Structures are given as structure tokens and as C-alpha cells.
Amino acid sequence: MALKQKSAEAPADAKKRKIVSFAKTDRGVEANECIKIFLVSSQDEVVSKEGFCIDPIGLNQYFGEAGIIYGYKDLKINIWLSTVSFHAYADISYASTADGGKGITDLKPGLENIFGEALLDKNEFLQTFSTESQCVGNIVSAGTVLGCYSLNEDGDSSDAHLSDQSTVEHQIVRMNLHSLPVGLLYSRLVPLTLLLIDGSSPIDVTDPGWHVYFVVKRVRSHSADCDLRLVGFSLIYRFYHHPDNTRLRLSLILVLPPHQGLGHGRRLLESVNAVAVSENVYDLTMEEPSEYLQYLRSCLDTLRMLDFEPIKPAVNTAASSLMDSVSKKPSKSLADPPAHAVEIARQKLKINKKQFLRCWEILLYLNLDPKNLKSMENFRASIAARAERDVLNNDIGVKGKRLIEVPNDYDHDMTFVVYYPLGEDSDEADGRFDDENGADQRKQLNKMIDKRLEEIAEIAERVSLLRS
Ligand SMILES: CC(=O)SCCNC(=O)CCNC(=O)[C@H](O)C(C)(C)COP(=O)(O)OP(=O)(O)OC[C@H]1O[C@@H](n2cnc3c(N)ncnc32)[C@H](O)[C@@H]1OP(=O)(O)O
């Protein structure tokens, strides 16, 4: 019996040891660590191994289990992504391969998951710089030019070699995505969106509701033909609004990393706003904007609202009531915009309700004197009241069911939350955070309020600077 046990245990121990020794010899390498991606605009940049190194989001998700690549010693994957034709080439190097117990990861499926058919072998890739040099220009020239601007691009080294006779102009061009060449160009841009936008996923290019707005850089010189390069793009979806209108939703915006922070994204957003106004759509919304995009959007919309005469009296009234109020707990109506202000901003500026409320808070802040502690205290209380109302659906378990409208970026007319109030403006309401769970919620709510106040102050400061 003892012997039997011993013999039964021996192979198991051996197996354990084996696993340990594999783990030591091949711990693998994370895709994030061994892959570098460079944007290149010429053959020379590939040959001299130059190019703009981008910082992709989550390469690990495309490779093996948890992004670990096994079986390679000193693996390096340099990917060259052409900003002329948006084809890619992967230069893979390693000292040796060996199966250390986890096999040798096949790199092809991971790379194809990102780059699809845009992934070429080296020779084909190098050739695209001449064979496809006009690919963006040929397609975009059929679009509708919405606006032109020139920039002093201090950070853009591609302008450095231009002769005195060359002119650089940027254009914003709108195109229907379901036209075949545009759809093909967009499909080559998908890898960039996967690499640079968190949570992005491809869309159905055959749906006629999609438009793409391209930002292109046009370089004209006497010696050569006009050279046209893609700088950024945005996807806009148009959908029906009952009974006889449409709405626009910005689903994606990307400025290529070498051109970010130079004003292209802002101009792209301004163009989309201008289209929404000129075509008199119901409103313009955004699909899950990143924090920076939301910041940029709020800067722009606050500037627009600051110049918008019809809401000025309402802003002044709300701001003075915050300054004058001596109440310990200002009622929510003190800082809330009147319904007509929300409505007129939607009609004329195409700003939807949720975005209006964000900018409204910034407008109020801009009207307050930071040295007047009472008004700042009242302002914080009004932000807190709104934040509390936004999370009120947590108050389940209390008598008196209510239905409230919760504005969202898609359709504020359609979203409702059932909640059970404690009496918002009564002392009873303070009891809602009393138990342990409630204390935790209060802590989170306070954090949320502090963050919101910081954002308001940051945008207000930026907006004041831009107007000075
Ligand atoms: C729905 C979605 O797509 S979510 C994902 C969003 N996209 C991404 O995250 C992809 C990666 N990021 C990007 O592509 C870009 O950074 C974008 C699209 C978010 C922004 O585009 P950029 O070209 O970088 O921004 P741009 O330079 O135009 O604007 C930024 C500056 O303009 C300033 N600005 C705003 N309004 C104005 C104005 N009226 N006049 C002058 N400057 C202004 C902003 O304050 C900001 O400067 P700051 O950061 O120093 O305060």
C-alpha cells in the first residue's frame, strides 16, 4: 500500500518540478514590451530606422494568453506603418527560438488581428511609397471641402525642408463612407484606431449614415505636384430624430500623433459643429469621449456659450443668486439653468442637454469671484446637489418611487431612472449616507465632486486665457 502510494506520488512530483523548470526557462515576453510601432512617410525613414514612435494602447490583447509571447530569445518586433498609404510591415528579429514548454507563439495571427490585409512583406511595403503616393489625394479630392486653414507648425518637422515657394494649407473634407474608395481608405485606418483609441471597434462602412471628415495637409510647390497627406479624421453618424429631423453623433476622432496638440482636433470639432448648425440638425452628441476630448469639447462649447447672447441674462441671474444666497444649503434651483436656456442652446448651437449642463457650470464659475468664499461654497453645494441627483438611483429601499429624466449623450428625451427619494431638500436627505455603505458612497461622491470642481476650474482657466 505504502509502495503504491509512493509510486502514485512520484510522477505528480516530477510533473510539478517540470512545470517549475519550464516557468524558469521561458517566462515569455509581453507583446507591449517587445513591439515598437513607427509612423513613416518615406522609404528613407524605414531604411534609416527613423520614424515617429507611437504609444499604442494594449497590444497585449492581440497576442496569446494575456499577451505573453513564448519561445523566442531577444524578440524584437519593429512595425513600420506608412502615413502615405497606411500599409504596414513588421520587422521581426530574435536570437533563437526554443519550445520551453509553452510552445513557440505564432506571431502572424496577432499581427493580422491588428493590421489585417494592410500587413505586407518588406519589398511590397517599400514599393507602396511610390505606387500609392497619391492614394489619399486621389480619394479625398472627390470630397466636399468644409474649410481651409494654415498653421505655424513649430512641432511639425515635415515642414522644415520646404522651399520658400512652397505653400502649406490644411483642409477639412467631408465624404460619405459608403462610397467604395472611401470605405477602403477607412479600412486601412482601422489599425490606427485600434492602436490609439481605447475601446474602439470597426464600424459597418456600408451603412449610408456614416460620414468621415478628413483633415489633410496640402503642400504645393512650383517644382513638384501637389502633395497631400492625412493628418486626422473623424467619423460622424447621422440618425433619425422624430418626427422630421436628424441628429449627428461624433463616434470617433483621431489626429495622427505627430500632428496632435497643434489645433487640428479643435478645427475638426469646429467643422462638425458648423455642419450641425448649418444643416439645422436636432443636436450633436459624442460617443464616450475620452477625458481629453471631453476637455477640448467643453473648452469649445463654453466659448460658444459665452458669446451666445440669448443665455447671458440667465447666467447672470444664476451667478448672482449664488453670490447673494445666505442659505446653508442652496436649493438646487439656484444654479440650475432655466429650461428655455437649455432649449435655445440646443436649437441654435446644437449643444445637447448633458453637455449644456457641464458648460453651464463652467459659465457660472467664470462669473463668480473666487475670493468671495460664500459664493464658492454655494457653488460647490450646487455642484454637489447635481452630482447627488445623478447618482440618486442608488437610493433604492426608501418609500416613494419616482421617475427622473437622466440626460445622456445619445438621447436625453429617452433615458429615465426609477428612484426612491429621501426628500432632497429636507434634513431627511442627510440620513441617506449614514450606514457603512452610505459612508462609502459619500466618500466616492465627495471625490467625484472634487474632481468635477477641478475640471471646471481647469477649463475656466483655459477659456479665460483663450479670450484674453
Ligand atoms: C469619441 C472618441 O473618439 S474618444 C477618443 C478621442 N481620440 C483619441 O483619444 C485619440 C488620440 N488623441 C487625438 O487624436 C487628439 O489628441 C484629439 C483628437 C483628442 C485632440 O486633437 P488635437 O489636435 O491633439 O487637439 P488640438 O491641438 O486641436 O486642441 C488642443 C488644444 O486646443 C486648445 N483650444 C481649445 N479651444 C481653442 C480655441 N478656440 N482656440 C485656440 N485653442 C483652443 C485646448 O485648450 C488645447 O490646448 P491645451 O491642452 O494646452 O489646453
TrEMBL record:
Pfam families in the cross-refs:
Acetyltransf_1, Hat1_N
Q: Which UniProt keywords apply?
A: Acyltransferase, Transferase
Identify a single GO molecular function assigned to this protein. Answer: histone acetyltransferase activity
Q: What is one GO biological process annotated to this record?
A: subtelomeric heterochromatin formation
Annotated Histone acetyl transferase HAT1 N-terminal domain residues: 29-198
Could you state one GO cellular component term attached to this entry? Answer: nucleus
The protein's superkingdom reads Eukaryota
Q: Does the keyword Membrane apply?
A: no
Query: What residues does the N-acetyltransferase domain cover?
Result: 227-281
Q: Write down the chemical reaction(s) this protein catalyses.
A: L-lysyl-[protein] + acetyl-CoA = N(6)-acetyl-L-lysyl-[protein] + CoA + H(+)
For the protein in the UniProt heading, the enzyme class is: transferase
Q: Which family does it belong to?
A: Belongs to the HAT1 family.
Q: What is this protein called?
A: histone acetyltransferase
